[in-house]
Each structure stands twice: as C-alpha cells, then as structure tokens.
Amino acid sequence: MSLMSFWLPILLSAVFVFVASSVINMALKFWHGPDYRGFANEDEIVAAIRKGNPGPGVYGIPFCDPSTFKDPAVQEKFRLGPVAKINLSPNGMPNLGKFLGAWFVFCLLVSIACAGLAAHALPPHPGTHVILHTVGLAALLGYSFGEFTNSIWRAQPWIVSIKYMIDGLVYALITAATFVWLWPAV
Fold first, then answer.
1. Alpha carbon separation from 56 to 13, 14, 91, 103, 134 (Å, rounded)
2. What is the per-residue DSSP string for 84-114?
3. 3-class SS shares of the chain: helix, strand, coil, % to 5
4. N or C: which end of the chain has fewer CB within 10 A?
5. What are the C-alpha distances in Å from 15 to residues 81, 85, 116, 118, 160?
C-alpha cells in the first residue's frame, strides 16, 4: 500500500484532532486552566527580567556550568532557590494563528507517520482491531510520550504532563478511529 492511499484518513484525522484539541482547551476550562499560575509580584519580576534585556529563549535560574556544581556558592544558590527554567517569547501579543497553524502541521505529521507505519507494517486488509491498535499506538507515541521529558527535564509538574498525556490518548483514539473508518480499499 502506498502512503498516498491514506491521504483522506491523514487529512481528516488531523482535522478531527485539531477540533478536539480546540474543544479540550477552549471549552473545558477546568481541565488546563489550573495548569498555569501567576506571581503575586509579577510587576517586580517583569521589571527585573526586562532590566537584563534577554532575548527569546530558555533560561535557567540559577545558571551555572556543570563543572561548577561542586562550588559551595553554586550549591547555596540552589539551596536557597528559586530553581527555575523560564521560557521567554518575543515581545508583543502572541500570534495565535501561528501557534494554531503549527499545531495543525504537527497533527498532519503525526497522521503521516501513522499512515507510513500502517502502510509498511499492515497487510492490505487488516482487521479493525489491528488497525486500531497499530495506528492508535503510533499516534499515542506522537501525541503523548514527549510530555515525560517536560516533567523530567523542564520541571513541569507531573499532573500537568499527565493531563496532556490524557489529551494525547484522546487524540490517538480519534486518529485510530479515523483510520479504521477510512481504511483504503485495495
């Protein structure tokens, strides 16, 4: 089977996941709303960051080189805290259209990867169960498993990662169901 024979499930699964993610993130305020918090002294923190004039990027506090981890002064900074990883974006209002466009492209890429796996690993007429499991597991890897690294390395609270992984499970089920529904006739 060729990858092109999967064009319809690729496109529609990406659209369905995009719509589902919009519902999850816009209509279900209780789900991800509590994931983000503000500082009580936000104006002071913003003024301090602005004073240093950093460009967009990822910053660590305290910042140090691994060779200095044994330095007592560095260890004291970690002990006293705060210990943080801060993502700074370019100044200005966020461009939601750019984010949504990138998210849709990502959804397409996950669906293309699922189709590529299915085209090479599955026979022309697999059962529903085989399609659901193969495509679903591939989509789950694409949508969910990267969240582990956010908690392991970027200090994202585990509950936040778990909620995003649950979202990814929903997206994987949508993707798999779409492929089952629109499996190409050969």
1. 33, 30, 8, 20, 39
2. EEEEEPPSSS--HHHHHHHHHHHHHHHHHHH
3. 70, 5, 25
4. C
5. 44, 33, 18, 19, 24
Is the Cβ–Cβ distance between 155 and 90 less than 8 Å?
Answer: no
Spatial distance between the Cα atoms of 172 and 156, rounded to a whole number of angstroms: 22
- What's the token pair of residue 52? 């240093």
With beta carbons less than 8 A apart as the criterion, state whether 176 and 124 touch. no
Residue with tokens 């085989």: 130
Phi/psi for 39 (5° steps) reads -90, 145
pLDDT tens digits, one per residue of 113-159: 999 999 999 998 999 999 999 999 999 999 999 999 999 998 899 99
Paired with 85 in beta bridges are 60
